[in-house]
């Protein structure tokens, strides 16, 4: 069974609030697709529109080119797995069998399908246990099993792992990913957790304020965010953004009196795209290297001088806040590197930044140019 | 001058039969940021309330600059307490919200104006001053609430989980602002949080509260590098610690660890964890074949790097990973134990998910606990 989901010009308004604005999205068959964004960005509304639980104010929903916009939820053949499981106080077997029995599937087939699904999820030896005897992780598996046993066209998961403890979450997450490869079906997964989306999904749609900011593979989104929002939202800490000046005569990008880089080609490209003499430079915190003395400006790098403002220890890393002519950047380094470096607040440092990791954003539209 | 700006001596508090705070002794120096780190119900809020004067201790003294202030009412203590719910007056502008505590203090208008603008500049909310509070985003609202708390000039700030219920992104941004505030304005403060990363990143010192007792006090690095017990070690890493189980045995060639789980192997302490030789050769540890838990942080472990392993090598099934963007946290299963290892993202190009790989655990970076009591070994 295949399904390809397409949203065309979808808008959803609740009273005065526009929850989803003019959304266009295509989710491919057999794809593990995540919709990621902060709370209130419209991701759950989008999922509910796909499920048929909400009707879009405007726009169409297609499953494999069939317009399902007006098709009620129960005819769409999708399974929705909620954030909190809703299970019946009976055995695991009965819980999984229930959706089949209510559809009038024969007893023999029910037994066969429950057995298959239990095997798939590692629940075989728990089938006769009462739900109350299960761990939270196993309960969420039963919840999944109940969705899978129906053999729906499409799975919609709304933050199904948030209630699990970190270790169980890791295991179930890994199992979910391999499960999807085995059942070979489309999964749409809604989450606010960037790590979850980055870890599970083939592609991610990043949403903000009812709008899709970017669709791409985890590393496309991480390496080449299409907007400041995406760069900030993905990664911890998020991408650094520094407003710099374009020196059209010197053909350089400058931060106050410091030249970040000089390139005729780059400056002309930027000038083509921005109606401004400023540009926002984006760089991820882990790509900046801190040095205590100014080394020769070696090929492929730029050196910028700054002052250490503060140092945060997070256990696995250090985050160093450095001010460059009054503008702040965060640098992420591992513990061994920090201890070797031995720096303190108020100290002058030299930041070595690889040129190929620098991105440029329009200061007005906040979209990435290069 | 007193050594501590604020000092707590033998503070004890009971609710009925339940001991909420058990003989707390703690000092905060002027300009210092101290975190009270502990799970819900450990006594953090009660302790803050006692310092603020909102609750009375059953036993013990509170000293400020060397003077006992047990009998001073809250408003005379020069303390501001910021609770977890940072509610704003939604119908008022940001400016008026920040001004509200100053109006109550009857400050002259010019002084007030200057203070508001200073703190607004500091928290980067100057452009929001004329906006109504209900038109703000979550992060902006939190900054405004913080500004309102900080505009009042007091000697000691008490923060009770001020970032709880916030998105992770906003939390970490505010954490940095907070730390700057401390470094720039030099305010003395106590910050209660259940979040280890927050405590590690923010504070000069951390006091770990557990069941009403301070179980460890030290700098973030002291605490992170050598947690006093297994519970704290797990808590600090969000249960991401790698744990090996075994027992100590004496051999002709030296003290050894007989590993029981997740692999069975005998290793010589002098070869794998030379820093522990002195601790483990203690008579009562080796002779009783004491059972131990060896803990290693995921960042002190590597995955088949092609380089020689100088630690303990374990072959395990790579079952998945967490993608943190800048790096991966890889999960490897062996005999029902899941090992966690930080790794660079290049590893994905080698297609190792679903394969068996060699994990190298650096035992020189391990911390070892007594399995029965959970206490760290070699703590003097």
Give a brief rundown of this model.
The complex is a heterodimer of chains A (370) and B (380). Chain A has 370 residues and is of the alpha+beta class.
Rg calc of chain B: 25 Å
User: What about the largest sheet of chain B?
Assistant: 6 strands, mixed
- Helix share of residues of chain B? 25-40%
Query: In which range does the helix fraction of chain A lie?
Result: 25-40%
**Strand percentage of chain B:** 25-35%
Instruction: Give the helix/strand class of chain A.
Output: alpha+beta
**Count of helix runs of chain B:** 11
Strand order of the largest sheet of chain A: 6-7-8-3-9-10
Shape of chain A: elongated
| Distance N to C terminus of chain B | 31 Å
Average of pLDDT of chain A: 91
Structure explained in plain terms:
- The complex is a heterodimer of chains A (370) and B (380).
- Chain A is of the alpha+beta class and 370 residues long.
- In chain A, 27% of the residues lie in helices and 34% in strands.
- In chain A, the strands form four sheets. Chain A has a six-stranded mixed beta sheet, sandwiched between helices. Chain A has a five-stranded antiparallel beta sheet with strand order 13-12-11-14-20.
- In chain A, α2 (92-101) packs parallel to α4 (136-148) and α3 packs across α4.
- Chain A is elongated and about 80 Å long.
- Chain B has helices spanning 44-52, 94-104, 109-122, 138-150, 168-185, 196-202, 220-225, 230-236, 269-272, 277-280, 283-287, and strands spanning 6-15, 18-28, 33-37, 59-64, 67-68, 79-82, 156-160, 188-193, 205-210, 213-218, 242-251, 254-261, 265-268, 291-296, 301-303, 312-323, 328-334, 337-343, 356-361, 367-370.
- Chain B has a six-stranded mixed beta sheet with strand order 6-7-8-3-9-10, sandwiched between helices.
- In chain B, α2 runs parallel beside α4 (138-150).
- The longest helix of chain B has 18 residues, at 168-185.
- The radius of gyration of chain B is 25 Å and the shape is globular.
- Classes of the chains: A alpha+beta (370), B alpha+beta (380).
- At the A-B interface, α5, α6, α7, β16 and β18 of A face α5, α6, α7, β16 and β18 of B.
